Amino acid sequence: MLAPFDDPTNHRLFSVSDEHAVSAWHNILLSYFPERVSVRALAAVHGANMALLEEYPAGTVTLGVLRAGAPMPRSDARAYAAKIGREATSRLRGECIIVSGHPMWARMARAVLHTIELVSTPLHPRAVFDSPAASLPWVLERAGRPLEDAPVLGAAFEALIASAHRRSRSSIPAALR
User: Where are the alpha helices (H) located in the chain, listed in sequence order?
Assistant: First the structure.
């Protein structure tokens, strides 16, 4: 049986700004970064994850999307990402990042993510995918949710991305549709 669709924009952890959108679906933290990932955006997402861990003490899974073509994070954001990665690793059941777009940009983004991983030495599973649809089975397995929930989780994630673009009045990138 499918889990009910919970509109992520109605979740208590929902927040959206020009730099990020974050919400949750069960024990899965959803985040979207439409622009350069900043310390402020990472702090909002980290705070939401800490709050979600109060509700799910057995652990959470994070699912984040970097908008194709967004500028690479600055050094302060990379350092902060490594710091919060070390702080949260013991209670993260998995961390999934979606990097889509032009192959050159995607390779560059993956290189930055790999560097952060080397610095933070995470003890939790990590994966990078090129589309939300490809990531859902991995995320659901780590969250302890049935694979049948993939369409519902996908719809929740699309609603979160749409909320960020409604706020900025931009269109949803084709790679994320």
Answer: 39-55, 75-88, 103-120, 132-143, 150-168
